[in-house]
Design goal:
5-stranded parallel beta sheet, 425 residues, alpha/beta
Length: 425
C-alpha cells in the first residue's frame, strides 16, 4: 500500500461540487491561492476586509523586503500575468512593499480570472459548518462551510484562511498579557521617514523587539536622527542578544544579512542605545510619555520614552474559528504537524522544511490555515513558503495527490532570520 493510497482525499459530493473554495484574505498568499485555483479551473471566492488587495502590505509599504523579486512572485501567478504581457521586474532586486503591490499584487488581483471572484469590504467574522457547531459530527465532512462576513454569509466546499496576523500584534509585556492602549504606542514598522516623520522627529523612541521589523525601524530612526536634532533611539530586547537580527555570513538572502550588519554598526557607534535582558512587566501612560517597568537581569528597571514601537511579533486571531475543529500546537498556535518544523526555539527560516497540505491538515476536513497565519506565533515565515503551501493544497483539492505530495520548493540557506513584520520576506 503506497503513501498516496493512505492520503485523505477531498470530499466532492454533488452538494459540495457546486460551491467555491473560499479564500479569506487578498494578500500575497491569498491571491496566490486564487491564481492556483483559477489555473486548475476550480471555482473560488476571495473575501477581503479592506477596499483593495494587500492591505497589510500597504501599511508597511515603505519598507524594503530582504527577498528579491524572484523569491516573492508565485510561479503560477507569474504565468497568468505573463500571458497578459506583464513582465516581472529585475529578478535579483528586492522590492519595497509598495512596489510589491503596484508591480505585482494589484495587477494579479485585476486579472479577469481573479477580479471577478474577489469581494472587497467583506470582513470575515466567523466560520462554521452549515447548521452545525463544532460539537456535531454526523455527516460533517459532507456539509458545506458557512463563512459569515460583515456583508452576509457564503457557503463553500473548502476554506483557506490567509488572513495573516498583522492586525494582532503580540503584547509588550513579557507575560504576553495585554498592555495599555495608548496612541504613543506604535504598531510595528511605522513610516518614520515618510507620513509619520513629524511624530518621531526630535523624540525619544524605544523600539521593543528582536526581529527584522525592529531592525528596519531602528535603521529609519537613525537616518531621521541625522536630520532631526534631539532624536534619540533606544533598542529594548528581552534576551541577552538579538540573534535573529544579527548578521550571518551564511545568509543567502543578502538584504537580510546587511540589515543585521547595519544595526550592529549603529549600536557600536552609539547611534542606537541597546538595552538587553529587559523583561517588561508593566506599561504606564505619563502626561508626556510612556514608561516601561520591568526587570533587567533580575533587578528592577524602568525606561521612559516619548514613543514606544511594539515590534514584538504577531499572533493569529483565532476568534472567528471557534466553531471549526482546529488542531493547533499549544506553544506556537500553528497546525500541530507543522509546529515542530517552525518552532522558533529550534528553527530559523533556513531550517524550516517546505511543506504542504499534509502538515496543514486539521480535523476539519477541507479547512486550512495558510500563509503567515499558519505559522501562529512563529516568526520564521517566507512568502515562498506560503506559495508552496497553496500549490500543494490546490493540487489536493483538485484530486492530484501526486502533485500535492511533492515538494516543489528549494529555500535559500538563510543563517538566522526573523520575519515578525508579517512580511519583509
Amino acid at each position: 500500500m503506497s503513501t498516496l493510497t493512505l492520503t485523505p482525499r477531498p470530499r466532492v459530493t454533488d452538494r459540495l461540487a457546486t460551491l467555491p473554495v473560499i479564500i479569506i484574505g487578498a494578500g500575497p498568499v491569498g491571491l496566490a491561492a486564487a491564481a492556483h485555483l483559477a489555473d486548475r479551473g476550480i471555482a473560488f471566492t476571495v473575501l477581503e476586509a479592506a477596499s483593495g488587495p494587500a492591505a497589510a502590505v500597504q501599511r508597511w509599504g515603505h519598507t524594503r523586503l530582504f527577498s528579491a523579486w524572484r523569491e516573492v512572485v508565485d510561479p503560477v501567478a507569474r504565468h497568468l500575468l505573463e500571458a497578459t504581457g506583464w513582465t516581472m521586474p529585475a529578478a535579483g532586486r528586492a522590492p519595497s512593499g509598495r512596489e510589491l503591490i503596484d508591480d505585482y499584487l494589484r495587477p494579479l488581483a485585476a486579472l479577469p480570472r481573479i477580479a471577478a471572484h474577489v469581494r472587497y469590504g467583506a470582513r470575515v467574522t466567523g466560520v462554521a459548518r452549515q447548521g452545525m457547531d463544532r460539537t456535531r459530527s454526523a455527516d460533517r465532512e459532507n456539509t458545506p462551510f458557512l463563512v459569515r462576513t460583515t456583508e452576509g454569509e457564503i457557503l463553500g466546499r473548502a476554506v483557506l484562511d490567509a488572513s495573516g496576523t498583522y492586525d494582532t500584534p503580540n503584547s509588550l509585556l513579557s507575560t504576553g498579557l495585554p498592555a495599555i492602549d495608548d496612541a504613543r504606542i506604535s504598531h510595528a514598522l511605522p513610516d518614520v521617514l515618510g507620513r509619520e516623520r513629524e511624530r518621531f522627529a526630535g523624540q525619544h523612541t524605544v523600539v521593543v523587539g528582536a526581529g527584522h521589523s525592529a531592525a528596519n525601524t531602528l535603521i529609519s530612526l537613525v537616518r531621521l536622527q541625522r536630520d532631526a536634532p534631539g532624536t534619540r533611539v533606544t533598542w529594548l530586547i528581552r534576551n541577552a542578544g538579538a540573534v535573529r537580527v544579527s548578521s550571518s555570513v551564511d545568509d543567502e538572502l543578502i538584504g537580510r544579512a546587511q540589515l543585521g550588519a547595519r544595526v550592529d554598526r549603529y549600536v557600536e557607534t552609539g547611534a542606537v542605545e541597546k538595552i538587553d535582558s529587559f523583561e517588561i512587566g508593566r506599561v504606564e501612560a505619563l502626561p508626556h510619555g510612556i514608561r516601561l517597568f520591568g526587570s533587567r537581569s533580575g533587578d528592577p528597571a524602568e525606561v521612559t520614552a516619548d514613543i514606544v514601537v511594539n515590534a514584538t511579533g504577531f499572533r493569529p486571531d483565532l476568534a472567528p474559528l471557534r466553531e471549526i475543529r482546529t488542531d493547533l500546537d499549544a506553544v506556537v498556535e500553528a497546525p500541530r504537524l507543522l509546529a515542530p518544523l517552525i518552532d522558533p526555539n529550534v528553527h530559523s527560516c533556513g531550517t524550516v522544511e517546505p511543506h504542504g497540505f499534509r502538515e496543514l491538515t486539521h480535523p476539519e476536513h477541507g479547512f486550512f490555515l495558510v500563509g503567515m497565519k499558519s505559522y501562529g506565533r512563529a516568526p520564521t515565515f517566507l512568502l515562498a513558503t506560503g506559495y508552496e503551501q497553496v500549490r500543494s493544497i490546490t493540487a489536493w483539492l483538485a484530486g492530484d495527490l501526486a502533485s500535492a505530495s511533492r515538494v516543489e520548493l528549494t529555500l535559500p540557506a538563510t543563517g538566522v532570520c526573523s520575519t515578525d513584520a508579517g512580511g519583509c520576506c
